[in-house]
Amino acid sequence: MIFVPKxxxxxxxxxxxxxxxxxxxxxTHQAMENYTKGETREMEMEPLFEVDQTSVDMKVNAxxxxxxxxxxxxxxxxxxxxKRVVWNGSGxxxxxxxxxxxxxxxxxKGLHQxxxxxxxxxxxxxxxxxxxxxxLKVNRDIPAISILxxxxxxxxxxxxxxxxxxxxxxxxxxxxxxxxxxxxxKKYYTKKDMDTDDRxxxxxxxxxxxxxxxxxxxxxLLNDDMKKKQKxxxxxxxxxxEKKDMEELMKRLQERIGHSPDLEIEHFENxxxxxxxxxxxxxxxxxxxIQKVIAAANEEGVKLRCAGxxxxxxxxxxxxxxxxxxxxxxRSDYGHGAKIRLSNRSRNEVDVMVGVTAGELRDFQVKNKLxxxxxxxxxxxxxxxxxxxxxxxxxxxxxxxxxxxxxxRVFDASGELRTYTPDSQAMFRAVIASFGCFGVVxxxxxxxxxxxxxxxxxxxxxxxxxxxxxDKLKSLVENNWSTHIFWxxxxxxxxxxxxxxxDELWVRLTNKAPPSVDPEDWDFYTWRDTKDxxxxxxxxxxxxxxxxxxxxxxxFNWVAFQSLKYxxxxxxxxxxxxxxxxxxxxxxxxxxxxxxxFIFDYDDDFDRLLxxxxxxxxxxxxxxxxxxxxxxxxEMRFMAYSDAYLGSGVLGNPATGGSGHVICIEIISSPGSxxxxxxxxxxxxEWMSLGGVPHLAKHWDHLPGIYEHIQEPKTTxxxxxxxx
Length: 724
What we know:
Elements: E1 4-5, E2 16-20, H1 29-32, E3 35-42, E4 55-60, H2 66-77, E5 84-90, H3 94-107, E6 112-128, E7 136-150, E8 161-162, H4 166-177, E9 188-189, H5 191-194, E10 203-204, E11 214-217, H6 219-257, E12 264-269, E13 276-282, H7 287-300, E14 304-307, E15 323-326, E16 340-344, E17 349-353, H8 358-367, E18 370-371, H9 383-388, E19 405-411, E20 417-420, H10 425-431, E21 440-447, E22 449-450, E23 453-462, H11 463-467, H12 470-478, E24 482-487, E25 504-512, H13 522-548, H14 553-568, E26 572-577, H15 578-582, E27 594-600, H16 606-625, E28 633-639, E29 662-669, H17 676-689, E30 693-694, H18 706-710, H19 713-723
Helix pairs in contact: 2-3, 6-7, 12-16, 13-14, 16-17
């Protein structure tokens, strides 16, 4: 360890400047503006220690890397003929020089040391920019250090000598003599404190040595830093190796597949940014392409998963080094290029191929005067993905979307295209919402109904009026065909204390309209589409800031809610085809969000339902008191149940003791919200204690104990049936 007095005239401050020009010893900033720096010379100096064939001369610069210096020096010193190492550095490289010497002393026990300090002269010449001025020469004297480490004994009478182990003995005696003292001083002097650019060095002030007024270089910190960087280097090498392995695997797969489809290495990320992986991706365009990829994956022993529009929050996609199959480009198998067809008009049966979006299916329904009783709001989601993930819509008597499937064709692990129908009921209940566990879904057949026109009402209620009175909530749910409730917190922004009860709720009610009513025309939807696009574009631009500027969330929600209430969806009623009513808002996918959703069989117990809702209301109020605003919105949808083993709403299935009705309640936040992880865990854990289960396509895997909760007897019957 190098002991350096605090008041050493040549080390603190780091540099001394002298100027030699016609007797002047200082130059003002204004004068120096008339000069441009020119030649720089380093004055030659005699070495402080003799260097011969048994010595290694190490020159340390400010930009040198410790790991490179140590690697070279340690390799040299392993040679038995090498007896001495001399470490030399000056200016900002002094601390790095000391570090290298200390690390070597700890790696090689028994080294003798001599340390010498001196100044090093640098001459700088400044050329005049103004006629009449003379050339300047500026002398800079900077401190320099040389440290000799020797395997053989050195002259102990030489100034700067340290015997092997002297530092440890010094510390032992000092620590035994002194009582523990509460530290009041800074532990570490940083780059800013020491006015040095050397980020690899750290300085520590030891309480025990304050009387000696010395600084000690904390080599443990530096050694830990080296280990950290070595670990990073190892990880980098590992990543390079893994990439090469993936490239070799991709090459073998491509050779087995042939020229189509092309494979490529892709860093995949889902829509919300909650899941990512390095995968081998492909986009087949035909049945044959799909079968070739499956066969190649089998032969190489590689797992394969599919991705539609990547809107799921759950980790249901490919893991690292697996195959990710994108099916949006698969060509039509129905003729005339169409990927949707009316397969049986009399029974209202519609075939839908992989790659078809919910919006494309909506347009088909309107054109053919048909309706699917329910669907998701996002019209950009893949219909096969919606069904495979057991997703749902809204409607008191509507089941999940997968429950309207009457046939599904799936490529199994051998590449065979299998057809599943309700003839094998147990198998069909498993396959229609299987998250891809049965293979690659090729197409589905949906059972639809004749089109109906509905009356959609937009209402705004005070939160305290609905969320505090069970009878009011019950009336909204049971007296309407579908009930959809949104709460955007902080929309009652005021100068006083915030009270969630003063907020307003956005409520959408849907009921069948009289037969004689005409629906809105296309001009209405064109104008609404324009408004949705403008509002979502604004939200997309602002949303990333919400995660960083949490204090702005209440103001943003207030402004957004005013726009919603008075511009986008003012109070009133409209008549529209049911398909348009389901997909009432477009361009939502331009603004990714994070989401946790739970499903409860509330068994018509609306007091219990209020308890479930108030888990969120109370948390929002509690977090707001700490100036934390993690929640962007709360969404509630009421539906019937699901017959699929993994479908949303299966908890309410009467066949297994359910009431026949469930509530799907969802909390939503902007990605990157600082307190979202803690907030969602707080809410999720309390919802778990109240008997809720997560929507398996949403974000739930971060909740503590969630896997054990899903396996509990009250929720696991359908899961066990799926396993069987």
